[in-house]
Amino acid sequence: MQHPPDFKKERRAYLVGFVIALGLTLLPFWAVAAPWASRSLIIWAIAVCAVIQILAQFRYFLHINLSRQKREDLQLILFATLIVIIMMAGTIWIMANLAMRMM
Q1: Helix (H) or strand (E) holding 9
Q2: CA angle at 23 for the pair 17 and 24, rounded to the nearest 5°
Q3: How far, in Å, CA of 17 to CA of 40, rounded?
């Protein structure tokens, strides 16, 4: 079976993306399991790993990079960001409301 010329390059990019994503997933688990710093520093480390994880997912799996992008790519990023913000705000609102009712 003949592979396209860019097959090895694409497979290597997926493998690099997988290793980065796996590392950025395991690092927060390790930070929580082996508390080496204050709680706020661990939370910041988890947040930074999450942002880098998002960028790695965009780059290696969705093939969105910082070169000239199409309008559809920008719309995809903005829509996904909007959905995530709505979900986060709704979750925080619901949890705060439940916490207030429990008091």
Answers
A1: helix 7-33
A2: 90
A3: 28
CA 75 to chain centroid: 18
| Residue 30 half-sphere exposure toward CB, CA atoms < 13 A | 7
Token pair listed for 14:
């997926």
Task: Say what the pLDDT of residue 68 is.
Answer: 67
Contact 53, 26 (CB under 8 A): no
| Ranges of residues in the chain whose predicted pLDDT is under 70 | 1, 66-70
Enter the tokens of residue 96: 């705060």
Q: Which residue has the tokens 């409301």?
A: 97
Residue 69 is predicted with a pLDDT of: 61
Q: Cα 75–28–78 angle (5° rounding)?
A: 5
Q: What's the start-to-end Cα distance of the chain, in Å? A: 67
With beta carbons less than 8 A apart as the criterion, state whether 17 and 60 touch.
Answer: yes
